[in-house]
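For reference, the entry.
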Amino acid sequence: RWAQLNPLYAGMRDFLQQFPDKKQLYIITTKKLVFVHKILDANQIQLINDHIRDTSEHVTKRQIIENILEDRKIRPEQFVFVDDQVDTLIKVQPTKVQVILAAWGYNTEVQQEKARQHSIPVYTLEDFLQAFGESD
């Protein structure tokens, strides 16, 4: 019942279930890991546990990304970070990773315009699935 009150965005369940190379997929979230795992389990989504990271008052999404880049020897241009908070994306920009604002998330047209002013592309869910989902 709890999981029903915390649904994934439309299309996200299939995307996560069908993502072809789970080694290249990370979730960086402000949610507590225990809740993320419950949501994933309820949606029958299996990901690599070490690839699910949560923030704290001492560790930001930017720091998590920097750690992943360093630990996994990933070049910033090979990493795409999608978030629904424009301020988070602006803070991440100095890492040189590709950033995208998820227009289907918790943001407004004002925030989407702010993203564009900071050269951050704004993707609808359809844009995202077309760019990163499996081709038919």
